[in-house]
Each structure stands twice: as structure tokens, then as C-alpha cells.
Amino acid sequence: MALVVMKFGGSSVADIGRIMNVASRVVESKKAGNNVVVVISALGNTTDALVQLAYQITDHPPAREMDMLLSTGEQISVALLSMAVHAQGLEAISFTGSQVGIVTDSAHTKARIVDVKAGRILDELEKNRVVIVAGFQGVTLDDHITTLGRGGSDTTAVALAAALKADLCEIYTDVDGVYTADPRIVPEARKLDRISSEEMLEMAATGAKVLQVRSVEFGRNYGVVIHVRSSFSASEGTWINKDDSRMEKAIVSGVTHDTGEAKVTLIGVPDQPGIAARVFRRLAEGNINVDMIIQNVSENNVTDISFTVMKEDLESSNRIMKGIVDELGAKGLHTDEGIAKISLIGAGMRTHPGVAADMFSALAEEDVNIEMISTSSIKISCVIRAADLKKAVNAIHKKFGLEKGVVMHE
Ligand code: ASP
Ligand code: MG
Q1: For atom 4 of ligand 1, which residue has the closest CA?
Q2: pTM for this one?
């Protein structure tokens, strides 16, 4: 008997009709002979609505209370889904994250799972029940409710699949898989049949919205096979981490984009040892994640340092940077929210020269200026003007012939 974790997102349980539809899919899987654990998100936009309620009271809601509030969304949806499964004739039981022992650290609103106690779930499966677990939430060792960051139900599902040693983790969503680019921007984008977890990690980290980054990390670390598919159709979606010789051969698998970052430039800082350490240490202490960094050549021993941060961190970054400007006697600070980051991902670029050159040519042919570049062994990212985003993504997608599917080595 296979053990399957099925995860459904908020749009898949947006109203009672859809909850009944999810229940049917769950019942179908159970009747096909699987042991079924279901993870779901809050109904529709419930989490957004709860966030708004909090911000009507204060601009700085205490993080612990925020978690207390946000975790209620999923408590509603699991109870309703359990009733729906009952109504369709099978036994089901719903649990909160804390009831099934999803233990996290105490970083409220962005907690990390540190342990999953699978015993209670296994007991219920033993009784032939469908087990329905609230996504996105956990509990600290000293019994405070936590949440895992927006989109965190994906991570609950993959973490449960890992802990239960499930045969498969199915992520049901409102799109039918992972695409070579965002189909809303690139109409010719194609669904990928398979992708390695390494590539998926880069895709999620550079703007593909379909899975929370941490869920992909978990999947990679524990070798969980993930199938991303539509909750509205029976068609195959995208398989992640299913071993396949094709994955070795794909040069390029997709183009992603992100308009959520801003560029910060420190102008005229002294070019001497210890400066970068000081700047980025200070940002780290402020809990600000920095993505791309470039430093220019110096003239007369002064240089400029640019980096990108998430737009929501810009205000805190500015506060820190103003202090640094004074301390270092720098000439000034410049911020720019009109940027977009565009990334090309492919495991085969590691061994295939010329991919970066082709990407830059695609941008040049469209007269798109590149402001920053960063690379990893399987990714090339460029910062460009946000206004150029659409033509840039389309040009790169076309350059690599992604409308015909992924590009293979000969
Ligand atoms: N309900 C949470 C959110 O909206 C978690 C999730 O959907 O995965 O972010
Ligand atoms: Mg989601």
C-alpha cells in the first residue's frame, strides 16, 4: 500500500463546492488503495484577510499574536474538509500542526520545522482513516503556536512526506505544473514534465511562485518525490526529483523573474579592507537578506557598492545605511525600486559554455541594459529595468527555443 501526501492550496478550497471537489479526489485516492495524508491551506484569501485585520489595529502586530491569528485559517479548512470526506462515506480526522507534533523553532511568522513526530498520524492511518493536517503551522517546544511563512503549507506537506517516508508528495494547485516561464508573460511557455530538485530550488528562489522555497529545500535534502499538478484536472503535472537521465542533459530549463527587489547603492566609500564586512554585517544583524552584490573599480581609493534587498526590507536597510554613510564618510546613498531580476536556470549550463553569452545577446538585441549580473553553477541572473521585463523574458525564452520544450545536449 502506498502512502501519499496530498496538498491543496487556498484556491483549491476557496468555497464549499471546491472543498467537496477536493474531498472527492481524496476519496478516489484512498479507494485506489493508498494511505492518504492531506495537507491544506486556509480557504481562498483567508490569510490575507486575517493579516489585514491585524494591520487595522497596529502597524507592528506582535509576531506571536500574528501566528495565533493566522493559524486559525487552516484550522477552519481542515475541519470542513474532514466533514466533506465523512459526507462522502469515508472516515477522516483533522489535526492542527501542534496536535500532530510539527515542532518548529521560535522565529514567529517564519518558523523553521525542526522535528516532525509522525506517531499520531501513523496510528490514525492504521485505523484506516484519512488524516487531514493543517498546513503552514507548527508549535515550539514550549508550546507557542508558530507559522512557517507565506506559502508554508507546501513545506508542511513535504516535511510530512519526508517524516512519514511517503512514496509521493502531490502538490495540487491552480496551475497544471511548473512552466519554462510565467505563462502570463510568455504565452508560449511550456509545462515541464520533469525537473531536478536543484533546478526547482533555483526557480523557486528566483521568482517562480508555484512552491515555497523551503519545501523544495526539504524535498531535496530528504529525497522526497514531488508531483505538482492541477486540482481541477486529472492530467499529469511536473515531477520533481524523480530520477531521470534527461535531467543530466537539459541545458536550460526555464526563465524566471522577480520584481520584489530594490537596488541600493553606497556611493564613494573608501576602498580598503573591512568595508564590505562592516556594511553586510550590519545588514545581517538587522535580519536583512541581501541578494546580488557588486563593487565597482575604485578611483582615487573610493568606490561604489551596490546590492539588492527585498522591497519590504528597504526601509530598514535605509535606516542602517544612513548610519553607515556617516560612519564611513561615504558620499551618499541611492535607492532604486524600478528594477527587475531575470534568471535563466539549467543544470546543463555547468558543462555547456556559451549560455551566458546567449542570454546577454538576447537582451542586447532587444536593447535591454544589464545593470547587475550574478551566477551560480546552474543559474545566471541579471538586474534590468522593470519596464523592460516583458520583452526581456520573452526574448530569452525565444533565444533558447524554450517554446519547443527544454534544450538538450546533442
Ligand atoms: N495560508 C497560508 C498563506 O496564505 C499558507 C499557504 O497557503 O500555504 O500563505
Ligand atoms: Mg501556495
Answers
A1: 47
A2: 0.91
For residue 352, pLDDT beyond 90:
no
Q: Do 197 and 204 meet the contact criterion of CB atoms below 8 Å apart?
A: no
Sheet with 102-104, strands from edge to edge, namely 113-116, 102-104, 137-139, 145-147
Q: Please tell me the distance between residue 381's alpha carbon and the centre of ligand 2 in angstroms.
A: 24
Q: Using 50, 70 and 90 to split pLDDT, how confident is the model at 353?
A: confident
pLDDT score at 409: 52
Task: For residues 139-143, give the mean pLDDT.
Answer: 97
153 lines ligand 1 (CB under 6 A): yes
Q: Whose CA is nearest to atom 8 of ligand 1?
A: 151
- Closest residue (by CA) to atom 6 of ligand 1? 151
Sketch the domain layout of the chain as residue ranges: 3-174
Closest residue by Cα to atom 9, ligand 1, is 150
Taking only the tens place, the pLDDT of each residue in 388-408 is: 999 999 999 999 999 987 666
Whether 97 lines ligand 1, by a CB cut-off of 6 Å, is: no
Instruction: Give 380's Cβ-side CA count (13 Å radius).
Output: 20
Ligand of minimum distance to the alpha carbon of 208: 2
| Backbone dihedral angles phi then psi of residue 146, each to the nearest 5 degrees | -130, 165
What is d(CA 76, CA 80) in angstroms, rounded to the nearest whole number?
Answer: 6
**According to the CATH classification, is domain 3-174 in 3.40.1160.10?**
yes
| CA-9 nearest atom, ligand 1 | 7
DSSP character at residue 376: E
Amino acid identity, position 124: E
- How many angstroms separate the CA atoms of 376 and 291, rounded? 12
Q: Which atom of ligand 1 is nearest to the CA of 150?
A: 9
